[in-house]
Amino acid sequence: MGIAIALTGGALLLRALQIVSSDSLGAKRYGVEDANVLFVAAAATYVALTALIRWKAHAQREASPALVRTQLVADAVAVHVCAVMLTPPSQYDRTLIISMFLVQFSQLYFGWRTTLFMLGSVAVSFTTIVMMAARSGMLNGPTEALWTFCLFAAGSLAYAWMLGHQGVRMKRLTHLFDRAREGDFDQPYEDGRDKFPDYITQIGRAYNDLRGHLETIILTDPLSGCFNRRGFKQMAAREVSRGIRAKWRVAVLALDVDHFKRINDEFGHLTGDEAIKEIGELIREIARAGDVVARLGGEEFSILAPDTDEVGARHLSDRILAAFRSRSFTSVRGQMPISISIGIASDEATVDDVVRVLTARADEALYVAKRNGRDQGVLWQTGMRAFDTGSSRLSREMERMP
């Protein structure tokens, strides 16, 4: 509405300062003073209609297609009424300059259908005032004016297509950043689809360069070097999808460092942090290349092992236990052993939430390992009480995440 007031006010100011000619179609038909009065009335009506449309859109909390098109028609009519009242017919092509911005704004904010509708509104309005001027004898060459409009329409459509093409590419980038915000960095920006590389292409290439660094920052626990909860969720979803297609079994190992509080109490929290670094590094060394190792917080870790049955999961657990038993941890200067307890669960990957179920079972098996003396791995059995309702430590965290 501010633009509408500025345009109409500017036109009146130019007329008052006699910067624009009074040799207009409106002045010839109604006289200069009456033409000014009619213009003011038309301008006030336009401003009032714009205010009404804005109020209704605010009340509905959205601008419906009907409201948008009503506003566009009002814009086109207002521009050409201004030309009839203030501009000599020989200068009607000036209206096309303003109309060009209207067409481009339509493309920028509303898309191709609305752009074509706006261009049609301009065509009707411009043709109407040209024909009116020709019938009044004030325009000798209406055909030339219409040819000028055809050139305007071709140029506007070409520029609108370019804006639309850039808008599509920007949406591609926005989609990538939306996925990155959720921790998904699988899809790169395909700059090969840009026939004419420009600044948008450069942004896409910069995203590709940063993709690996962003993935590390967002999905990795900086202390242990393992995945964090978000990273575990992303990787688990990917591996489960693969497992469902390949009809794999998947396993989840729940790991908890035994008596970790003693390290913090006896050596301090800085030493505890160093111990977490060593523990994370050791678990990642023992895990296979395709396994997903995550630190869930504190001294709690989890491993998702794709294509792994109970035997393979138990073998992995034994390797981890042996590595801890033989390791002299430099963080505690070899003054105390660090052991770990492990709960193990495996099942077929048939549903998307299999990781939640397996995590609940692995947590129950971990509880049994702790209760039976720690420093051991326990495989979940059917007789154990499994928290399949989602009350496990990881499943609760995964469900809270966006």
Question: What's the layout of helices and strands?
Answer:
Blueprint: H1 2-16, H2 25-30, H3 32-60, H4 65-86, H5 94-110, H6 112-135, H7 142-181, H8 199-219, H9 229-246, E1 249-257, H10 260-267, H11 269-286, E2 292-297, E3 300-305, H12 310-326, E4 340-348, H13 354-371, E5 377-379, H14 393-400
Keywords:
Alpha-Beta Plaits; disordered C terminus; 3 domains; 5 strands; rod-shaped; alpha+beta
Which CATH class of the largest domain?
Answer: Alpha Beta
Helical fraction equals 55-70%
Per CATH, what is the topology of the largest domain?
A: Alpha-Beta Plaits
Sheet with the most strands: spatial strand order: 2-3-1-4-5
Shape: rod-shaped
Number of domains: 3
How would you summarize what this structure contains?
By secondary structure, the chain is of the alpha+beta class. It has helices at residues 2-16, 25-30, 32-60, 65-86, 94-110, 112-135, 142-181, 199-219, 229-246, 260-267, 269-286, 310-326, 354-371, 393-400; strands at residues 249-257, 292-297, 300-305, 340-348, 377-379.
Protein model, in words:
- With 402 residues, the protein is α+β, with helices and mostly antiparallel strands.
- The chain has three domains: 2-140, no CATH class; 175-218, no CATH class; 220-400, Alpha-Beta Plaits (2-Layer Sandwich), CATH 3.30.70.
- It is 65% helix and 8% strand.
- It contains 14 helices and five strands.
- It has helices spanning 2-16, 25-30, 32-60, 65-86, 94-110, 112-135, 142-181, 199-219, 229-246, 260-267, 269-286, 310-326, 354-371, 393-400, and strands spanning 249-257, 292-297, 300-305, 340-348, 377-379.
- The chain has a five-stranded mixed beta sheet with strand order 2-3-1-4-5, sandwiched between helices.
- Strand 2 and strand 3 form a beta hairpin.
- Helix 4 (65-86) packs parallel to helix 6, helix 5 packs parallel to helix 7 (142-181) and helix 7 packs parallel to helix 8.
- The chain is rod-shaped and about 105 Å long.
